[in-house]
Amino acid sequence: MLGKTLAVFVAGLAVGVGVSRWSAQPPQHEQPHQQHQQQPVVSVPQREQQPAPPARQSQDAPRTRPRILDFGHPGPISDFFLRDALAVSYNRATRNAHWAAEHLTLESLRREGGDGDEAPDRANSKFVEEKSLPIMFRSRLADYVGTGFDRGHLVPAADVRESQKAVDETFMLSNISPQVAKGFNRGYWAHFENFVRSLTKQFDDVYVITGPLFLPQREENGEYWVKYRVLGNPPNTAVPTHFFKGMSAACRLVWCLICVIVAVKGGRKYSETFVLPNAVIEDTPLTEFITPVDAVERGSGLTLFPDLDVRSLPSLCAKTKCAVLPFRQAAKSLA
Asked: For the domain 2-20+76-334, what is the CATH superfamily, name and number?
């Protein structure tokens, strides 16, 4: 069944469907949104924003009007947040992150707060909305109530040890994506997070990019469709929150989570890309979810680790065993 799933996934990407993509920042003269005063932590212009050299025009070609954007750039905007232990690029249209990134080492996972600080504890953290975003574009706490979805971390709180503040930042909803509760967020995905942490025992540095991936599903007539359930209560909100619901059968999934890993040992780099369905997963080998990185890039519109030629890197799973482990066994391996 999962072999069929990955075949559907790659075929679906070929039709060019995927709603997450890089967005250009508006020019500096655009007026800030009136619904909030605090701006995003960091604003990073995208490459598309760079002006291209003027094209040579024939005598018959109409000239571009110089005042097209007199009244501002309509967006979309990609909000970028750089925090103590993670970086997040946020997609206002889907109310999900484009991606969240982290860097792990064995030392960082064993650290217990700074000098004189108490050890951080996720029990002291609470989920909070991303208040630096306009209200109409935020993921809201109420969106999850009664949905059957967990508020699922992209960068896990368990990966952060440096301070309570850094742990608290992982609970901001910009780092959260709706995840099927039982059988995924509280099961296979949690074990997968343990696997990622266990890599620090064998590798010097582990770089991780995680994010949602929205896929089409193939209907019986061969056409591809994206179907989703809107969370929240759209009739009572100006703009509904567009969370995409994964189908329960893995072969009909429309919503996945991606995780791209680059692990470094003695200067040698290894990489692997996983695509996991946001659905109940039971006894399935982790290697079944390995997916070519270029397929993920086509589906997501992202360039993953753009300063590396990730495609040419040796396989991480050829260097180490890629398998999910129960919590106690994973914790013992890090001890």
From this structure: Extracellular Endonuclease, subunit A (3.40.570.10)
